[in-house]
Amino acid sequence: MTPAPTLRPRRLRRTPALRRLATETRLHPAELILPAFVREGIDAPRDIVSMPGTPQHSLDSLRRTANAAAEAGIGGIMLFGIPERRDAIGSAADDPNGILNVATRAVAEEVGDALVVQTDLCLDEFTDHGHCGVLDPDGGVDNDATVDRYRAMAIAQADAGSAVLGLSGMMDGQVAAVRDALDLAGHEEVAVLAYSAKYASAFYGPFRDAVESELTGDRRTYQQDPANRREGLREASIDLDEGADIVMVKPAMSYLDVLSDVASISPVPVWAYQVSGEAAMIEAAAANGWIDRRRAIEESIVSIKRAGADAILSYFAIELAGWLR
Ligand code: PBG
């Protein structure tokens, strides 16, 4: 007969009270950030078919959602703008009357200090070709010319009242350049969130519907190869050297190893983004009755935190905060 085990980890799983006391990772609403889309020229929210529960907002519905986020006690909101008109250089991005900057002002005014108002700093929503930067004559994305555009965007977003700028374009030198532009403009107080390890991912699919992206082709000359782990650490180290206040890994669930690596070396907060396709997989499977929606959401977010994220961007932020109460 097999001898009785001497080590019995099941002891700490025996009752709900023991499990509650033995849990290693606990979620809190304050570490959740809601990404939200605002579209120019609409006066009621519009559904995004691939993103149930996440609409394209009008300014009014965005204000209401920001209030709901504040009431739910989440930490922040990350704004994305969808302009009516696009051009080669994304002119609407640094126009104070551009939709993202108008919405930032509206939300900052609405929620005051109850929520950290943050903005996506990237050109893809604003360019008619859909790339995250401006193109050179051969159709490639011109790194340094793009970074100049980011400098102008940064000042416009800071002027509008964004407290944290989410640099998601993956151009070389973008963090140092934006920091410099902000400081020169007297915006030393505005923080830079670097999407440090951002992979060229299939999981951004629904997001491209959300922003009505015009992209043909892909982003592989600037976003990272999903096969590369070491490179994620290098990107984060460079952004830290350039003065990033927060570094991020994106997507989250397929990159938990990268997240864990970055968390182990970073002296600043490390965030992760549970992207649109990650949410869509949960929604679609749950809609088919194949997984338990609430448990899948909770498990996905707790896994991201367990891997090392200090805060998490998630389309489920408000709903999850409600369950955590
Ligand atoms: C770039 C940006 C993207 C996402 C966030 N910022 C799209 C991309 O890089 O193609 C994707 C987020 C998501 O899928 O939820 N502006």
TrEMBL record:
Name of the molecule in the record: Delta-aminolevulinic acid dehydratase
Enzyme class of the recorded protein, top EC level: lyase
Enzyme Commission designation: 4.2.1.24
Catalytic center residues: 198, 250
Subunit and partners: Homooctamer.
Entry binding sites for 5-aminolevulinate 2: 276, 315
PANTHER family the record matches: DELTA-AMINOLEVULINIC ACID DEHYDRATASE (PTHR11458)
Gene name in the database record: hemB
Pathway(s) served: Porphyrin-containing compound metabolism; protoporphyrin-IX biosynthesis; coproporphyrinogen-III from 5-aminolevulinate: step 1/4
InterPro entries with a match to the protein in the record: ALAD, ALAD_AS, Aldolase_TIM
SMART domains per UniProt: ALAD (SM01004)
Function, as annotated: Catalyzes an early step in the biosynthesis of tetrapyrroles. Binds two molecules of 5-aminolevulinate per subunit, each at a distinct site, and catalyzes their condensation to form porphobilinogen.
Binding site for Mg(2+): 235
Recorded GO CC terms: cytosol
NCBIfam families: PRK09283.1
GO annotation (BP), single: heme biosynthetic process
Molecular function, one GO term: porphobilinogen synthase activity
Pfam families listed in its UniProt record: ALAD
Catalyzed chemical reaction(s): 2 5-aminolevulinate = porphobilinogen + 2 H2O + H(+)
UniProt binding sites for 5-aminolevulinate 1: 208, 219
Keywords linked to the UniProt accession: Heme biosynthesis, Lyase, Magnesium, Metal-binding, Porphyrin biosynthesis
